[in-house]
Amino acid sequence: MAEDIQVFRDLHNAVKKAIGARLFTISAMNMRERIARRAYTSHPADYPNTGVKEVFDDAWTDHVMKDGKSFIANTTAEFAPYFPDHAQINALGCHSAMNIPVFEGEEVIGTVNILDDEMHFTPEAAQQAEALVRQYEAGLIEPLRAAL
Fold it and tell me: How many angstroms separate the Cα of 131 from the Cα of each of 5, 27, 77?
């Protein structure tokens, strides 16, 4: 599993270098069972890799998990309806969020979650982050599957 985690670290470092990331997590998703589990975190004290969360039906789930599109919110007001922990996110200095789906074939099996300052995700930054996820995607599949 150590080599699996290395791909998460490598992607985290690449994203941090390219566009910055105050908080960086990767979530494994199982839509058949409607569960998510954090597989990697840049802030283990604030966002540990423990427990399983239920995935709810909402606009975020439709956009990311069903339509396979990145979610971008450049203000807290944009992500607060979907992130019940938005106050904790803000306490870390994060006021924007981007969730990029990770695919195995046509199925979304996880998300790469990048959070930073308000208005952080310009079109250029979002494009760079998505390109990096696609570059690392093949190596993310097995460790994401193992995380659930």
Answer: 20, 18, 26
- The Cα 24–Cα 39 span in angstroms is 11
Q: How far apart are CA 34 and CA 19, in angstroms?
A: 31
Q: From the CA atom positions of the chain, what is the Rg in Å?
A: 14
* Sheet of strand 71-73: strand arrangement: 53-54, 35-41, 23-30, 107-116, 96-104, 71-73
Neighbours of 70 (CB within 10 A): 19
pLDDT single digits (tens) 2-61: 555 899 999 999 999 999 999 999 999 999 999 999 999 999 999 998 878 899 999 999
Domain boundaries, the chain: 2-147
- Name which CATH class applies to 2-147: alpha beta
Q: Angle formed by the axes of helices 123-147 and 2-18, to 10°?
A: 170
